[in-house]
Amino acid sequence: MKSIRLKPGKERSLLRRHPWVFDGAVARGSADPGETVRIDSHEGEFLAWGAYSPASKIRVRAWSFEQAQRIDAAFFRDTLRRAIALRERMGIASNGLRLVHGESDGLPGLVVDRYGDTLVAQFGAAGVERWKDVIADALLDITGCPRLYERSDASVRALEGLPEVTGWLRGDGPTAFELQEHGWRLGLDIALGHKTGYYLDQRDSRLALHEYTRRLGFGQVLNCFSYTGGFSVAALAGGAGHVTSIDSSGPALEQVRVNLTLNGLDESRATFLDADVNASLRRFVAEGRQFDAIVLDPPKLAPTAAHAERAARAYKDINRLAFKLLPPGGVLFTFSCSGGIGVELFHKIVASAGVDAGVDAAILGRLGGACDHPMTVTFPEGEYLKGLILMRKL
After folding, report:
1. What is the CA radius of gyration of the chain?
2. In the chain, pLDDT over 90 holds for what percent of residues?
């Protein structure tokens, strides 16, 4: 078994059971991509077993902190079984849910979502790439699903020195599905859609918008970066008078129309804008438009902390414009899915945007990933999705 030795003092994070070892912490030792290595302190004491990644800044991702643990097929089967059992206990009323959430489930770099009887997996690190076949077989055996589609096309693959890979890994069949949640029907395609086909992490946030719409009776709702319109369906189903969906993807907006039809919603209460969100917000401000509720759910702007400063400016700009479009009593649902933007920083960005807009707002609630996207106490980076519900003060 190959081993790596850390520099003095670099063992602290592993002692707290944080699973990442950065390249600058390694004193000596190497291995092949994804190969299991023993991680030792500078003094030679065992710290963890991990997967080595020579191309990544995250040089090793820990599998286990137990010295007696064997990293073999049985380890992956047992870890997958425990992750899936956790979701079964959650009792999620949807045919789409996340079964494996990377580091939070002890499988760094692995994401697995289930849509009906089909699994979709992303292998985002060298370690899970090396064990891909073992993981795929175990997933089908544990879940009883006959098919597994691979969506290993996220940008993190390049950081691991891995090529993009998509397609059927086990079985085959149609890639179009109908997600069912909160009594709604949402069409998606696991081959063409974002992430593994849909934003399952926003399940609870869509319900929150629906409930606020029912309670406050929003007349005009603006859904920015709407994608295929999950928030649009939630608002209209909640009784919103009119919803404007903005996205720069024509096909995504066509799917919004389809989703409205699937749910028996009146398309005359909807407007679809194939346009740039920032430019549209500026135009609305110039026109004196106002919206009772606005959803800002932009794509990832800061994948790492190194991108945080530039992303902060972008987040501040769209939130400042949104505040200007809210009447007193209007509600803003604003999100960041950037891992490089922490909860505290996001709060500061939104607060600064309100000051620049001349708007004071009350925080009505905080939002995050749905419960099948857990964050663990040892891996705070798992809290990549954060959101605020704010009401402009009367």
Report:
1. 22
2. 93
